[in-house]
Structure formats: structure tokens, C-alpha cells
TrEMBL record:
It is found in: Cytoplasm. Keywords: Cytoplasm, RNA-binding, Transcription, Transcription antitermination, Transcription regulation, Transcription termination. HAMAP family: NusA_B. This is Transcription termination/antitermination protein NusA. GO terms for cellular component: cytosol. Monomer. Binds directly to the core enzyme of the DNA-dependent RNA polymerase and to nascent RNA. Participates in both transcription termination and antitermination. It comes from the Bacteria. One of its GO terms (biological process) is transcription antitermination. SMART domains: S1. One of its GO terms (molecular function) is RNA binding. Gene3D superfamilies: 3.30.300.20, Nucleic acid-binding proteins, NusA, N-terminal domain. Residues 138-203 form the S1 motif domain.
Amino acid sequence: MSNINLIDSFQEFKDFKNIDRPTMMSVLEDVFRSMIRKKYGTDENCDVIVNTDNGDLEIWRTRVVMEDGFSEDDDLEIELAEAKLLDPDLEVGDEHIELITLESFGRRAILAARQTLVSKILELEKDEIYKKYKDRVGEIITGEVYQVWKKETLVLDDEGNELLLPKSEQIPADYFKKGDSVRAVVHKVDMMNTNPKIIISRTAPEFLQRLFELEVPEIFDGLITIKKIVREPGERAKVAVESYDDRIDPVGACVGMKGSRIHGIVRELKNENIDVINFTNNVQLYIQRALSPAKITSIKLDDDKKTAAVYLKPDQVSLAIGRGGHNIKLAGKLTGYEIDVYREADEHEEDVDIEEFSDEIEGWILDEFKRIGLDTAKSVLALSVGELVKRTDLEEETVKDVLSILQAEFE
């Protein structure tokens, strides 16, 4: 195995793995110096010259010429008689410099060096991947789906590095097959048993933020800032934005003409409903905007307990709560207040709180109605049996029994 053959194989490694030249030269030199120490006991008097551009390797050993019979260390010194055979001009005290060929180390040593180089370069490559992605946490990347498993999906980036997209970081409506292109944000980077583990996410708020930066130039340029993002992936998201330029409407800029800018984001997120809200330090106004599209009549705040009692007209309650309670839950997360929704009673209308029927109706059934914003008898009676069955987890028979009990109260 010649010098060129050995080095050429790692020249390919260097090109493929994109390890920088100084690092590659350092690794090669370390490996060959280790070989020298094993054969000669020391590498202090050896120079290793590696040229990674053309694959040349040269090892030069320097020994001091000693009088015959006075050499104490053959690795560092050479006797005059032996030196004269190699170079007749040498005298005692001169330095004899010789070229050491790779073949002189023997086949076994060369194979061991090759194996060491492979392992060192793989280690370097893993470190490079780790460092590269550690610096890219929060960035959007595009990869290709390589393999789909039950709990996670393996994605390859454009350099063939492996990225993991766990099921928990996928939008519920996501469906991938091999060869699909997928966009996600770099979520977490760990080193597991010397192997970099790169987790990407499509559910993280940062993913939505980066999509807005791509679609809305004003955000990318810093004219509009995203103050906070809260998400129920695949269902609903609320984005609070603020403009540093009074001439720019932040909500309008993010949505775009006829929704042109936000449409691409919604499509990427599998039709996630995105509410863009104008940020304000006025808490009451902020909560009012956060509960959009519901129209609020009044709000009572408790700043110490961080709670807000929100009063709405009966037809606005279900809008404030939203499907599955997503709207009110996200509004709470966005504003930092625990929001309770109350139906504003009509002074001229006789009504009864459904808690008054706790003797006749089981508590868990009453809780189901309250969960969807129905906290009075008339609010329940205002909806049909079919609508109540659809909105709650109650059986049709149970709903009919409840309606007959409530109806009796007003007869």
C-alpha cells in the first residue's frame, strides 16, 4: 500500500465530509506521528509533511552523526561508519536526514493507521454536525423524508445528515412518505453516545415565527416585531405583532392583500387557523383582541391574581370559547391572564343558573354545558337537541332529559 493510495482515500473523505484543511492535516499528522513513536520510540526528531491537496506525504528523520561505538540511542543517533555508507560527506556532529517511506512501517501498521484515520474522521464529522446544528437551533430547514416510523420520521438534509421529526413535533394532519420534502425548525440538538441527535419540529412556535419572517418582508427587516406566538398545532394559533413605524399596519402587513401572505403559512400548517393581533400594553384591550372574533361587552381584571372576568352577549359566548375551547385557552396563554367567560344577563329576562338544577341533574352533565359557555337554563334551551349533542359529549337521550327538566322550570 503506497503513500498515495492511503492519502487519496482520505482526500475523498475530506471532500465528502467537508472537514476544513487545517483540521484534516492535523489529524493526518497525529496518526503518522503515532506510527513513528511505535516504531522508533520517539517522534521528536521527525518532520511529517502532509499535503492534503495532492495526497503527498513525506516523513523525514534527523539523526546526529556520532563516533563509532559512542552511539547510545539508535533512534536519535547514527554511527559514523553507517552514516558514511549513506552519505560519504558526513562527519561527526553533522545531522543525517533521511526520508522514511510508509512501506517501511509494514502492512499491519499501515492498516491500523487507516482504521485510526477512519474513526478519527468520523468523530470529527460528528462534532462538525453537532456544532453546525447547535448554532442553527431556531432556524428553518428543508429536508427529504427518508424513512417513516410509527413514533418518528427520519429526514435527510441536503448534505445527507440525519434529522429526526418525532410524532409529537408533527402537526396532527401531517402525513409523510419517502421522498417528500418537509420544512421544519431545528428544535433541539444533543450528543447521544458520541452521535449528534438533531430534533426538528413543526409544532414549535418558532416554526410559525420563521414562516412569518419568510412571508412578511417587514418582519424580516425589523419594521414589525412578533411579540408572542401561542399555538394549538393544526387547530389554531394567535400571533401578537407590533409595528415600529406608525405608517405600517402590522396586522394588515402580516395578512397581506386578500390574505395573500398568510395563505401560504396556513397551507404549510395544514389549515391551522391563524389570528394576527395588534399588540398593546393596555391589558383590557389586549384581552379583547385576543378573544377575537368574539365581541366583548365588559372585562373585570384582577391584576394580582392575573385573572380576567369577561362578559359577553349570549350569542358571543361560543365564539369566545371556540371549537374545543382553543380560542379561550390560547387567549389566556397570549395575555398571561386566566380568562373566565360569563354570559351577560338581560335584566328584563327571567333566567336561572344551571347550578340551581344540581339536585335533579348530575354535576358532570352540568359541567359539560358550562364547558361550552352555557351556564343558564335559557342558554341551554336556546339550542336544539342536535346542536347540543354535537357540541357536548352527551348522549341524545341525556340531552332530552335535561331539556325537559329545564323547560319545566318556566312552565
